[in-house]
Design brief:
The chain has about 375 residues and is an alpha/beta fold. Helices cover about 45% and strands about 15% of the residues. The protein has 2 domains: about 120 residues, Up-down Bundle (de novo design (two linked rop proteins)), CATH 1.20.1440.110; about 210 residues, Alpha/Beta hydrolase fold, catalytic domain (Rossmann fold, 3-Layer(aba) Sandwich), CATH 3.40.50.1820. Helix 6 crosses helix 14, helix 9 packs antiparallel against helix 12 and helix 10 packs across helix 11.
Length: about 375
C-alpha cells in the first residue's frame, strides 16, 4: 500500500508517522507538507525536513505552554516527539558517533516527557532495575486514584522507542480502562546508547518489569497482560513462555524466527552481487542492516545474521500457558506467514486474527490502522480478563 512514496521504506515510515494522528501524534497536513519536500529515497532530506517540522511544532508547544495553554502545549509537544523520532529513523550508518542522531533522539525524549507531564493524568517516569543498571519506563494510568486496574506491560521491537509506545498502544489502552507500564528493553530506544543490546532470552528482561509491576498499587496483579510489537512479537512470546505471572499475551504480530527475515536479506544480497551492492540500492535493506548492527551490537552483516539465529520460537512456543492472541498483517513483508506458524505451535488457549489489505490493516503491524488494531486487541483482552 503506497503512501506518498514509491520507495517502500519511505512509504511505510510516512504512514507510520501519520498513523499516530488519532492519538495526537501527528497532524495530516504537517505530514503532507513535510513529505512533499523530501525526494524519493533521499535520507538526508528526510532527516532535515522532519527535524525542521519537529522544531517548528515544538516552538508552537513551548509558546503555548508559556502562555498557559496546557492542552495546546501538550498536543504540539506530542507531535514534535513523533516527528523528531521520524527524523532520526534513517540515521543508522554510524549512530554511536552521529551527533545529530543524539540530538534528535534527545529532543524526542524531552518533548514527550514534557507532554507526558501535561496529560490529564500525568505519566509517571520509572526506572526498572535490570542487571546492575535500569531500563527507562512510563506508567500510564487511567486516573490518579491508585485503584488497581488491569494493566498492560508493553514493549516495541526492532526500532521502537518508549516515547512511541504511547501512540502505538498506551493511549488506546487508557481509553478502555487499562493502565500501561511501557518500557525500553535492551536494544530499544535510549538503552542502546547506554551499551545495552538485544538478547534472545527476553524473559530476563520482562521478569524484572513484572517484579516492579506487582508492587504498584495501580496494578491488578491477577490481570497483567504482555503486548509486544514487531520483533516484540517474538520477544513477548519468548518471555511469556517462562514468565507465568502473565494473565494474557498479545503478539503484534506473531514472529516465529528472526533469522529467517535476515536470511532473506542475505539471499537478496547474493542475487544482487553482495550485501554492499544491495544496500547501495535498497533503502529497506540498508536500514535493516544498519539498524541491526546498532541494536544488536555487532560489526558486520554476517555478524548480524549469526546473532539472529537464537531468535526462534522453535521448542519454546508450547511452553506458553496464558491465553495468547496472535495478530497477522496480510501484506507484511518482514514476517510473511510467521504468525500462522506461531499460532499452530501454541498449546495454550489461542486466537489468530488476520488484518486484510483491502480493509487498510494489511501493512506490517497494521500501521495506518491503529484504531482497528486497538479494537481487536483490547476487545479480546476484555473477554480474556473478565471476572
Amino acid at each position: 500500500m503506497k503512501f506518498l512514496y514509491d520507495d517502500e521504506s519511505f512509504s511505510f515510515e510516512a504512514l507510520r508517522a501519520a498513523g499516530y494522528a488519532p492519538y495526537g501524534g501527528a497532524e495530516l497536513g504537517e505530514v503532507l507538507v513535510t513529505c512533499r519536500a523530501i525526494p524519493e529515497g533521499d535520507e538526508v532530506a528526510w532527516s532535515t525536513r522532519w527535524a525542521a517540522t519537529a522544531a517548528r511544532v515544538e516552538r508552537i508547544g513551548r509558546d503555548a505552554l508559556a502562555a498557559g495553554h496546557r492542552v495546546s502545549a501538550r498536543e504540539a509537544l506530542l507531535r514534535a516527539s513523533n516527528y523528531y523520532r521520524t527524523a532520526d529513523f534513517y540515521r543508522r550508518e554510524d549512530s554511536a558517533r552521529d551527533q545529530e542522531s543524539v540530538r534528535l533522539q534527545t529532543a524526542s525524549r524531552r518533548t514527550f516527557a514534557d507532554a507526558a507531564a501535561l496529560l490529564d493524568t500525568p505519566a509517571r517516569a520509572l526506572e526498572i532495575p535490570y542487571e546492575g543498571t535500569t531500563l527507562p519506563a512510563y506508567l500510564f494510568t487511567v486516573d490518579g486514584s491508585g485503584v488497581p486496574r488491569p494493566t498492560v506491560i508493553y514493549h516495541g521491537g526492532y526500532d521502537s522507542t518508549l516515547e512511541e509506545d504511547y501512540f502505538a498502544l498506551a493511549a488506546g489502552a487508557l481509553r478502555r480502562g487499562y493502565n500501561v507500564l511501557a518500557f525500553d528493553g535492551p536494544g530499544q530506544g535510549a538503552t542502546v546508547r547506554a551499551g545495552l543490546h538485544f538478547r534472545p532470552d527476553w524473559e530476563a528482561v520482562v521478569t524484572p518489569v513484572v517484579d516492579v509491576a506487582v508492587t504498584l498499587p495501580e496494578v491488578d496483579t491477577g490481570k497483567i497482560a504482555l503486548v509486544g510489537t514487531s520483533l516484540g512479537g517474538y520477544l513477548a512470546a519468548r518471555a511469556a513462555a517462562f514468565e507465568h505471572r502473565l494473565a494474557a499475551c498479545v503478539l503484534h504480530d506473531g514472529v516465529w524466527d528472526m533469522y529467517e527475515t535476515v536470511a532473506g536479506v542475505a539471499a537478496a544480497a547474493a542475487d544482487a552481487g553482495g550485501i554492499e551492492a544491495l544496500v547501495a540500492t535498497s533503502t529497506s535493506a540498508r536500514w535493516l542492516v544498519d539498524n541491526g548492527r546498532w541494536t544488536y551490537g555487532v560489526a558486520t552483516f554476517d555478524d548480524l545474521l549469526e546473532a539472529t539465529r537464537a531468535y526462534t520460537l522453535d521448542g519454546v512456543a508450547d511452553r506458553i500457558t496464558c491465553p495468547t492472541l496472535v495478530l497477522e498483517a496480510e501484506n507484511d513483508q518482514f514476517f510473511r506467514g510467521q504468525p500462522q506458524r506461531v499460532h499452530d505451535a501454541l498449546t495454550c488457549p489461542k486466537d489468530l486474527v488476520v488484518f486484510p489489505e483491502d480493509e487498510g490493516g494489511g501493512e506490517h503491524c497494521h500501521e495506518g490502522a491503529t484504531l482497528r488494531f486497538h479494537q481487536v486487541a483490547f476487545d479480546w483482552l476484555d473477554g480474556v480478563l473478565a471476572d
